[in-house]
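Example 9 (inverse folding). The structure is encoded as follows.
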């Protein structure tokens, strides 16, 4: 039994009567009556535990907590549990981390305990504030909807966000724990004690600042992590890809939110990731020193009261006006409103021969609806480099402007790079002249361009291709240098664009595959062999390589998919080792690939072993997922057919596995017809078990293979027999749009193939 509360955004009203608005603050007196064998926790320290009897004579414990400081309703919290804790005191603040007894006993919470105090102190020092509570509890909950919640004095987390197993050698788990703990402590240090947003439309300020401090705190406790790369890879990059589809700005008016959004929908990547990216950019052009100075004065003034974003801009303005190192082209409010009150973000286009930069909103040009320009302009800080040396920051404050410094005529080798290290929240489009020169630099001396900027060049150029700003050939030119690229996070960005997982089987069907194979393998060999060396000799040496833990699997999977013999041999060799000795552990970093290709290269013997290990009682959820997927890698159709049949017999599979089996098989090049026939033959049974949802999922995957009207009709006939009328319409629309996507993709692949044909031997 366990009770834990989650009040944000509007659930306090379900627990006690209140005006449940962030701007209304009160002190809270909390008393909890509970079973005596359990412990009760709340925001404040317990000051008394007494006993009482109810009318049946049963004994209850009564825990009374100290009166809280003034705070918002959504930060009140309580937990009633039979957990154990580990503890240490940092600057008079008693920190306890609570979890299930066996987890505490096994030392799973020690890592979180070791970092919590130091991050707390670090944030207090940076912001020049002191934490007003005498205790802080962090609780690891077996089931919890969010990663963490910053209730003041009683933070709650899902177990994986706090638990680090001593046997787990990899930093990627540590990094995740560090970031989540650091994020919630960022709230404690700078948000909650002091100010709360006036209303939910300024939520981004809370979360954006916490996300900014999350990275500062994490760098402090673990300097080995290349957090700038992780920040751009996990935060900035993903939200740039989503920000066109989400139709809201960071800070909407209250009326608009009340009219058209649910509050919970505000807890999205715009609020967290765009909020953090914009804060990072702000700190960049102000300098960290001035930004922190302004924040610290802001927090002092709004201690225990409510603030909105304009209050923060005022404080930053005061700090800017009091010094003369940093000059801004407009007021802080004007600059920041252009980023927080408009949807989307800009793309800058540089013309090298005239030195002109123009800006426009980054929109999908292939999508006709987007052609009416809304003339949004942003006030944009431009960090830039010329021929590898950094230049003074420039500002673009209108739709276009000539920068004489950027006019490059002299030598054919002069190049310019904008938005160095992705310090601004925008994309960059270069003219052909500069792109040619950048491609030349990449081929002759890739390290002349910083790693984050190489990552961004590739990411920008593929996004520009996708949205119709440039041709695919332009993007491909920038991949020629890759044999000299040793950063995995950059390779990952390339592979996500050239070999997206959901297209692997589609790519196999076309003439593009043999060309891609030759072109990519030639460039992948150096980085592949570098990492294969560790897999052969000493995989533990990678325990501090964060990106190897995140992305090595994709690199190896692609190498095997492209038919690299060494990769296929390595997979069968490690898989055979496991078959000889089930105690042997396949290197965690490439386990999925090894199991998949172990089965693919093998026969029914290898497949049967995977099945046997799957049905083993002590295999973990993670093992089961890997094996479920691996069994669909079989290359013999009878094995796949038998696998689908096993999926129907509900003895061994929990119900949600059958649909996973079908979806795994349907995504494979030899499996998609078979899985489709299997679904149609067994539909009465499947529909009774899984209903329409399974059909939808299968349809999405099948859709990738639909290229002709005849194929659409075939799917349509089946759907017309099985679906209700309203669902039929939706399905028809889905199929039609999928077909046109496929036709577009076909055109694109023909272009890619003809470019590869010309360049495959370079």
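The amino acid assigned to each position is listed next.
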């Amino acid at each position: 039994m366990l009770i834990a509360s989650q009040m944000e955004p509007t659930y306090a009203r379900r627990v006690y009567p209140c005006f449940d608005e962030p701007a209304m603050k009160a002190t809270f007196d909390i008393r909890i009556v509970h079973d005596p064998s359990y412990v009760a926790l709340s925001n404040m320290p317990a000051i008394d535990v007494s006993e009482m009897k109810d009318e049946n004579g049963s004994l209850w414990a009564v825990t009374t907590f100290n009166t809280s400081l003034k705070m918002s309703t959504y930060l009140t919290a309580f937990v009633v549990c039979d957990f154990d804790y580990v503890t240490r005191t940092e600057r008079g603040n008693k920190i306890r981390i609570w979890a299930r007894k066996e987890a505490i006993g096994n030392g799973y919470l020690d890592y979180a305990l070791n970092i919590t105090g130091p991050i707390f102190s670090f944030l207090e020092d940076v912001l020049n504030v002191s934490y007003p509570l005498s205790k802080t509890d962090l609780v690891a909950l077996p089931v919890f909807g969010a990663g963490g919640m910053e209730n003041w004095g009683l933070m709650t987390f899902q177990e994986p966000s706090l638990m680090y197993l001593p046997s787990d050698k990899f930093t990627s788990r540590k990094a995740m724990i560090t970031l989540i703990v650091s994020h919630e402590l960022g709230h404690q240090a700078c948000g909650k004690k002091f100010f709360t947003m006036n209303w939910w439309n300024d939520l981004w300020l809370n979360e954006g600042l916490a996300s900014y401090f999350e990275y500062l705190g994490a760098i402090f406790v673990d300097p080995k992590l290349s957090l700038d790369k992780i920040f751009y890879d996990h935060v900035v990059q993903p939200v740039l890809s989503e920000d066109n589809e989400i139709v809201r700005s960071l800070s909407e008016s209250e009326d608009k939110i009340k009219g058209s959004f649910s509050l919970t929908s505000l807890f999205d990547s715009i609020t967290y990731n765009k909020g953090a990216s914009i804060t990072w950019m702000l700190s960049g052009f102000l300098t960290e020193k001035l930004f922190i100075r302004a924040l610290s004065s802001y927090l002092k003034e709004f201690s225990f009261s409510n603030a909105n974003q304009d209050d923060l801009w005022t404080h930053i303005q005061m700090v800017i006006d009091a010094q003369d190192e940093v000059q801004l082209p407009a007021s802080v409010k004007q600059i920041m409103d252009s980023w927080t009150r408009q949807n989307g973000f800009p793309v800058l286009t540089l013309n090298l021969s005239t030195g002109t930069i123009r800006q426009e909103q980054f929109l999908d040009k292939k999508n006709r609806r987007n052609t009416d320009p809304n003339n949004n302009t942003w006030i944009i800080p431009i960090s830039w480099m010329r021929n590898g040396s950094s230049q003074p920051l420039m500002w673009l404050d209108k739709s276009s402007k000539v920068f004489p410094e950027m006019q490059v005529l002299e030598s054919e080798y002069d190049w310019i790079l904008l938005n160095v290290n992705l310090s601004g929240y925008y994309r960059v489009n270069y003219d052909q002249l500069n792109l040619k020169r950048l491609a030349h630099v990449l081929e002759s001396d890739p390290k002349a361009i910083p790693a984050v900027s190489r990552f961004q060049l590739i990411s920008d150029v593929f996004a520009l291709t996708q949205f119709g700003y440039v041709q695919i050939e332009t993007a491909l030119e920038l991949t020629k240098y890759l044999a000299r690229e040793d950063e995995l996070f950059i390779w990952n960005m390339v592979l996500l664009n050239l070999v997206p997982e959901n297209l692997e089987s589609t790519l196999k069907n076309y003439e593009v595959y043999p060309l891609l194979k030759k072109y990519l393998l030639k460039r992948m060999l150096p980085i592949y062999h570098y990492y294969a060396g560790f897999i052969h000799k000493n995989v533990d040496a990678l325990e501090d390589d964060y990106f190897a833990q995140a992305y090595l699997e994709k690199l190896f999977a692609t190498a095997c998919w492209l038919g690299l013999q060494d990769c296929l041999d390595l997979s069968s060799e490690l898989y055979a080792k496991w078959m000889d000795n089930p105690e042997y552990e396949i290197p965690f970093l490439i386990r999925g690939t090894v199991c998949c290709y172990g089965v693919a290269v093998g026969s029914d013997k290898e497949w049967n072993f995977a099945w046997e290990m799957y049905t083993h009682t002590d295999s973990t959820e993670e093992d089961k997922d890997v094996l479920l997927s691996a069994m669909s890698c079989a290359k013999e159709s009878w094995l796949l057919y038998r696998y689908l049949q096993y999926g129907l017999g509900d003895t061994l599979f929990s119900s949600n596995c059958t649909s996973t089996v079908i979806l795994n098989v349907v995504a494979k090049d030899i499996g998609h017809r078979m899985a489709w026939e299997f679904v149609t033959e067994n539909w009465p049974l499947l529909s009774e078990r899984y209903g329409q949802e399974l059909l939808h999922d299968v349809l999405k995957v099948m859709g990738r293979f639909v290229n002709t009207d005849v194929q659409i009709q075939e799917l349509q006939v089946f759907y017309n027999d099985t679906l209700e009328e309203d669902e039929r319409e939706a399905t028809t629309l889905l199929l039609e749009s999928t077909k046109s996507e496929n036709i577009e993709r076909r055109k694109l692949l023909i272009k890619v193939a003809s470019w590869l044909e010309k360049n495959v031997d370079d």
